[in-house]
Each structure stands twice: as C-alpha cells, then as structure tokens.
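Loading example: each entry is read as two labelled lines plus one structure line.
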Amino acid sequence: MTEQQDKPAERDLVQIGASTSSRAVLERLKELGHIAELMDGYRLAIAVAIGFGRLPRSKVNVERKTMFAVGNLDPDGALKEAIREIYPAVRATPARAAEDLAEQGLEIIEQNFDGDSFSFSGIVSRVAGANESAAKSQAT
Amino acid sequence: MMLLKRVELENFGPYFGTQTIELKGDSNELVLVHGENMAGKTSLLNAVRWCLYGEAKDRSGASTPTQKLINADAWDAGDKRVGVSLDLLDRTSEGDVPITLHRQRQPRQGISSPTAEKDFSTHLAVDLNGHILAEDQFDDTVNSLLPESISRFFLFDGELLREYEELLQEDSTAHARQVKRAIEMILGVPAVQNGKTDLAALQKDAARAFNREAKKHKGIEEAARNAETLQDEAEHLEAEQEKLHSQEESVLRSLRAVKEELSKHAHLAESARLLATTEQTLERLDGERVQKLLDRRELAKEVWRDVLAPRLRQEIFGLEREHTQIAEAINETRDLEIKHLEREKSIADERCGTCGQPIPDDLRLQEQNKLTQVIDRIDQLKSVADETRLNQLGTAIGRMRDIAPAGVDSAIKQLEKDLVKIAIDEHKAEREKENAESDLRGVDPKLVPEFEQRRDHLNKHLGQIEKAVKETEEALGEKHVALQAQKRAMGEKDEPGLMRLRIVRDMTEELLDAYERSVDDLTDDLRSNVERQASEIFRELTTDKTYSGLRINSNYGLTILDMNNSEVPVRSAGAEQVVALSLIGALNRLASRRGPVIMDTPFGRLDRQHRENILRFIPTLADQVALLVHSGEIDPERDLEPVKGKVSAELDIIHIASGRSELRSRK
C-alpha cells in the first residue's frame, strides 16, 4: 500500500484518457481483433498495473487526451472501489489514479505482444505468478 | 513367325545408357531374366511393347508418359532421349527375313525441359532385310508381324491375367468383347467372316431383285411391297448396327485415350484434389479462427476482473491479517481491563476477591506488581486495538470481496490453445497448398476435371450405345421373322421372270445360310480346339487332380470342370492364373500368327507345385519364351530342375542404385 498522503485540494476526474502512445496500444489491440472496444483494453490495462503491484504516480508530465466518462468505464464502481482499498493514499481521487495505472498497464501490455498475437491467458498467469511470489515473500 | 534376336535399350526406365540383350533368335529358346522387385523386369517387357506399339503400360494398365520412361540419371545429366531397337526374324516358308525396328523419343527442338507429351517428338526406323522403309511403314510392318490387338497373348504380366475372368460372363462387357475379338483374330476368324459379308450382300441384292419383280404380279404385290419395306428397314437396322459397333469401338478408343491422359496426369489430379482440400481446410480454419477470436473478444470484456483477482486476494489476505490482529488486541484489552478492575478492587479492599480472606502483605505486593503489568500491557495494546480501523478494515474487505472474478480465464485459455492449434493447422495447410500450387504451376487447372468429365461422359455414352446395340439386335430379329412371313405369303408362284429370280434369291440365301453355318462350325471347332488344348494344358498345369478340364463359353471364357464334369463355381487367384495361362497356351498352339512370349512375374500367385508344372510346360508354350522372374518366384538353385537343359540364356538385372539397373549375362 502506498504511504502517499491524500491531497484534499485535488479533485477527482469525471473523464479519463490516455497518452498518444497508450492510445496507440489500445487501437492496435482493437485493430487486431483482440478487443471489441477500446474501453475493454483500458479496464484490462488498469487491472494489469494493479496486478503487477504498480503504484499510481501523483505527477506525470505526459499529456493525456480524454477518452471515456468514468461512469461508462466503471459502471458498477468496482474498479474505483478496488483502487480505493488497494491504494488508500489516493482514496479521494481513484479516477485520477486509474488513469495513471492505465498508462502503466498499457506499457506492460505492449511488451506482451508477440508479433500481432496477444495472449490474455498469458497476462492472467503472469499476474497470478507475481502475486504468488509477493505472498510468499510476505509470509516469510 | 516372329523371333527376337536382339533388344537394345537406350535410357529406358532404370537402364542408363545403352544396354543390350542378345538372343539366339531360334525356336526352342527359353530365356530367364532374374531381377528383384523394382529392378526393372516390367521395364524390360515395356521396352519391347513400347518399341512395337509406342506405348508402355504400368500395372494398372495405364500408359506411362515419356518423361517417366527416361532414365532419371540420364535426364539429370541432360540426356533426355529414350529409345529401343528390336532385331527380329520373320520366319516365313520362303526363309528368314531380318527386320530391325527402332523407336526413339526426344525433346522437340528448342525445348530443354520437356514436361508434356507434346514436348517430345518420335523417330521411327524400319530396316527390312537391308532396305530402309519409310517411317510411315513402321506400323504396317508391326501389324504384319504381331498386331497390337493380339499382343496381349505374347507380352503379358502374370499379375494382369484377371482380364480373362470377364470372358466368363455371357452378358459380355465391351472390354470382354474386345478380348473376344482379339482371340478370334489370333485364330484367324476375321478372314472367313469377310466371305460372309460378301455373300450377305449378294443375298440382299437377289432378294431385292425378286421383290422388285414380285410387285408387278397380282396377288403377291402387297407382300412384295411389305418385304421390300422390311428389307429396307432391316438393312437400315444393319447399317445402324454397324454404325453403333463402329461408334462403340471409337468410344472405347477415346475412353482408353482419356484414361491414359488421366493416368499421365494422375499426380496432377492428386495435386488438384489436394489443392481443393487444403483450400477448403483453410477456409474452415479461417472460419473457426474468426469465431474463436470473436468468442475470446467477448470474454476479454470481463477478463480484467480475473487479472485483478490475485492482487485483490493478496490485499484481502493482508487486510484480514491486520483485522485479526486488531480484533485480538481489542479482545485482549477488554479481558485485561476486567482483570485490572478486579485487581484494583481487591488491592483496595485488602481482601481476596474470590474467598474474602484478608490478603497478606507479601501477596498484596505481588498483586500490585501484576496490576502494574496489566496496565502496561493495556497501554501497549491501545495503539493496535483501534476499533475504527477494525470497522474500516471490515468494510474494505467486504468491498474487495464484492469485486468477484469473472471466471473467464480458463475459457480464454482454452480458446487461445485452440487458436494456437488452428495456427499450426493453417501453417500446415498453407505448406500443402503451396506444394500443390507449385505442382500445378503452368498447368491448366481445368485439364484434369475436363478429362474426368470426358471419361464420365464417354462411359455414359458407351452404356447408351450398348443399350442401342441390344435394341437394334432385337428389332433386326423381328424384321427377319416378318420378312420370312412375307416370303411365305408370296409363295412359289412360277410365273415367267419371277421363277429365275426366286431361284437366285433362294440359292443365295441357302448359300449364305450354309456359309454362316460353316463359319459357326469353324468357330465352334476353333472354340472346341481352344477348349481341348486349354483343358490339356490345364490338366498338365493344375495340381488338383479332381479337375477334369475346362469348359469354354461363347466368349472363350473358361470354367473349371470337376470329375463329374460339373462346373466349379469358385476358383482361387492361383487357379485363375493357371486357367488364363492355359488359354494363352491354347491360343499360341492354334494361332495363325506366332511370336515370342515374354511373361513378367508369371508365378506371382502360384504355389511351388504349380510353379514346377508351369516351368515344365513353358518351353512348349511358344517357340521363344522369356520369363522375367524375381527370387520369390524362382530360386535358381532349387526351382529350375523342370527346365534343366532347356534354358538357353540367363540374365540378371542388377540393381546398382536408385533408378539405375544393369543387365548382365549369367555365366
């Protein structure tokens, strides 16, 4: 869990987006038929970053273009809830954290392309493996 | 009688360069050629057949394309010629006439890599007793020696003798009729049948002349008119019948040619079929891949939940551990606070809280120390036993648990496994497709389907012709019956001018009838001779002494008879071969034309005893016999006793390397 402190003055986002390079990864996923909608890849990217234990960064100097309304991305609020619980430091701004986690997740996804192929089960098992190792080291 | 003196091969099949077989070229000559499977025995038989008729056949009876005839090493070395020369002797009553036949195929000028028959040209040469004949006299020379239609009785493969089985069917097939015609040709029947044709023409002319005159005579004019019409109709039917027979011949020829083409293009047909199959496979795999990708895309919508699940489990585990620690600290604090109050009270009362007895001073001091410890522990626990945090943790754990995994990961895993398999299958199919396309490059893709279509069309046409032949025969029979009725109706009116014509008509009719009977008698005699000779040979060859002989049918089909002269309905493959050899032996004895017999793998289906019997018989089969045998048929050390002293030459086909053999005389 992060030790960062909440910044009460900061307001959370109602619309989130991605940098040009991250958006390109999403579009590649869609063009190759791996995902139906860009939003599916965006959600996956957030989950991948969380799964690999990445922390939401407070300040990244990358221009991000708005892509989705948070309400559409996370209609049942499950992602927001997960971020709030996993990263208490950003409890007040989970959408902002999600945007950065998506950036980091899309970088990981890009590295996991094999030519034009992309394996979802490969990502699932790698995340499971990473968490298993973390659990072991925590237990010891 | 034709005898072989020398066979010279040039790049023919496995025979690289020029290789020669020398024979005595005399009667009573038995030559044994030993060679293992694939060494080149059939190629030797084919070389003789190819030189004579321009066609080599494989075991299926299909024609071998020129490219496949040419020795592979010669081809690779750039020598793409193939040739065979035969030195023959035509033994006539006036003496021996030496004849040399030479056939060669080579690529046409300007073609360095021939692939099709059209890329080769044929060169023929005939030397008749020192006179070089024109190329177009090659076929006439061969026909005068050994026409192709009877060659099946001289140059044959022991494994292909089953064709004589078809002769057993009374309702003969077109192929059986062909074999029957070949048999009659070797027996000389066509020559006497020409006389029958001439007489039939005379008889028709006489009948026509009579009818023409009869029309002028009262009382019989109507019958004469009817007879004239019937004769016209019968002649029309006969012409029709002749036309149908000629069509049948032509269709059979075309069918043979189409089958040859199909056989030449068999590998192309296979490639075309493979191409079609792989294209279908690729189409199916593409469909499956698209569907699986769509299914996976659908599942991928929720896969983020499964990606998140391990981290959430990890988080929940940590939070639960903290939750447990706080809860335990709170519980311990509560217990300690109760103990603290009890101890404080008993210290203050100076009496034991349980039994009410006064507490001694040393014990009170001890209690005081314990109380201090409890207070210290409570102070320690206060930093952990945070009830607000406990509640927060409970809520957080509950919320995290609410984010349930979608459970699509295993389905996605299976789909991805399937997609990998599809990709492998697609790759394999692509490779097969490329190979098939490479085979078919430059080949008209419609070629084989067109030949197949043509073959089916010809088969259908042949069936229609056969049906029409039967119908015409029946109609002709009816006309002849009706003609006889009209003839009877005209009676024997002895008017001047009519009587002479009637006598001529009746005489020619009787003459034709007598001639037909004679021809029938002759063919019956010939058939009986064939039956007698074949039975004699069969009894000599068969090891089953319960067989009394053979019975011939109208198609020259032979059935085995038992001791009671009853037909044996079922016969083994070996017995079939013995029967076929008996027929061939009989035909050679009775033949109007004789030639050398070359038999490839003659003992393939025979047991040892039959082999011995046949070996003993073979020197009498023809004036010159060459047997092409493998070690499984004949063991030279053990099996040659029956022909001891009769073998004039023995050769070995030595298999040197793949696709290369050499002929060597055995010392």
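Chain B touches chain A at residues 293, 296-301, 303-308, 310-315, 317-319, 396, 399-400, 402-403, 409, 412-413, 416 (CB under 8 Å).
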